[in-house]
Amino acid sequence: MQVPPAASPPTPVDATRWLAVSSLLALIVLSLAWELWLAPIRPGGSPVIAGVKTLPLCVPLVGLLRMRMYTYRWLSLLVWLYFTDGVMRAFRASGMLLALASAEIVLCLLLFAACAAHVRLRLRNKHE
Prior knowledge:
Helices cover about 80% and strands about 0% of the residues. It has about 130 residues and is an all-alpha fold. The relative contact order is 0.15.
């Protein structure tokens, strides 16, 4: 009987990849929920606004899953638009709106840090 090989522990590159993917997915879910149910601009939600806000976040998901370095790089720039949205909304909000804006800010910072660390680690491993 053959014993299956032990699973290797995740590498730091894998960890940054999954942090980026999970942060991006959480940001997508937050954006949809915010604009459709939790605190929409118009009563009853606005699918158009939700789509315009969420669609740019859906585009890089495939690139992150395929570990395309270019996607990690441009997503680390795109995420600052959503960070700015969270900061702008946090300054004039209270209660649940403040919590949503704070969650958006935290997710953006996590996504940026994961993308930056992923690119740095992969470049370092490439040159070793």
